[in-house]
Structure formats: C-alpha cells, structure tokens
Amino acid sequence: MYLLTNYVPRLREEFPLLPLDAAPWNIVAKLPLALPQFLQQLDLKDYEDRAGVYIHRSARVEDGAILKGPALIREGCFIAAHAYLRGGVILGPQVTVGPGCELKTSIISSKSVLAHFNFVGDSIIGRGVNLEAGAVVANHWNERTDKTIRVHINGQKISTGCTKFGALLGDGARIGANAVLSPGTLLPPGAVVRRLQLVEQDGAEPE
After folding, report:
1. Beta partners for 27?
2. What whole-number distance in Å separates Cα of residue 139 and Cα of residue 146?
3. Rounded Cα distance, 25 and 40, in Å
4. Per-residue pLDDT averaged across 121-136, rounded?
5. pTM of the full predicted structure?
6. Residue 154 pLDDT class (50, 70, 90 cuts)
7. Which residues of 64-82 are buried (b: 16+ CB within 10 A; e: fewer)?
8. Which of 24, 74, 126, 164 sits most deeply, having the most CB atoms within 10 A of its CB?
C-alpha cells in the first residue's frame, strides 16, 4: 500500500514475512490474530519465549515491565521498568520503550524511542521516530457519537471503517512532550509536532 511505501519505506525490509498489503488501519486491526502466524514463520532460536512474548536475547527488559502476548521484541531493544505492552505489539531492532509507556496493537520500527509516559495505540511507527515525555497517540473517539475514524489523504477525507486506529508516523518524525495525536493522524517522514500541540486531522465538527 502506497501509504506504507511513502511513510515507512523500509517496513517490508524490517518485517519481510508480515502481511503488509492492506491499509495501515486494517493491518493493525488484524495484528493480534496475524502476529501468532507471523511468529510461526520466524527462526526464533535467539529468542526467549515468555508466554507468547518472544524476546531477543540481546534485548533488555527491566524488572517491573508488564508484557502480554502475542508480542515480538527484536534485537537490541530496551524496555524500562513499568512499561506495559498489552499484546499485538512488534518492536523492531533497537527500539526503546521508556518507563511508564503503554503500547497496544502497534508496530514500532527500528531505533524509535518512546521516552516515558507515552501511550501508543493501534499504530504504525516508522524508523527513528522520537516521542518525548507524555506524548499520546490516541486511538479512539471517546467524545463522539460516530466513532468511525477518518483520515486525510491527498486532500480527501477517507473513512477507515474502524473505530480503533491511532496514527501512521513516517520515518524520523518528532513528537514533542505532552503533544496529542488524535485518531487517524498521518504524519510524513521528518514531521515535527511541537510540545503541547494537538494534531487533529479528522475535520469532523465536535458533537
């Protein structure tokens, strides 16, 4: 799908056996079911299996982190104390998940950093992305009656048909401290979001 090619061009290279032909929101929606099948195709001899959470032996997980399967944590990753991976999570090589971060149903590409106290739900994060402390990638319209998430692509507003989708963040994006990305955010490679900024691309009027 061209969105992945333009935003995270090396995603297939990093995860060659992962089904990546669908739209980003459909990929993450299917991730909890697709991930166990994906894991069966991998050579996991260098991984430790902790109840469906596969952790590369070079990765470091501090005491107090909570990891729920299915999940894949690749080489060189660091997961700090009190991080919470809720399942359906894939971390590429050398990803950092800081203290107090929560991840759900997301793909995080290599060398990306979630500093601390971040929430990322139902998202695809490119390579070398940095989220400063407290930045949130929201994945659900709590305040709306119509919770269907829409995205803006080439000037058009497109319905995803999903009620859970966070963001697609291109390689090298920078998200400032305490910024909030509303559901359906698409940020191109190298995008910068200021501290405390709200990114809301849906365009629907508040109800």
Report:
1. none
2. 14
3. 23
4. 98
5. 0.96
6. confident
7. ebebbbbbbbbbbbbbbeb
8. 126
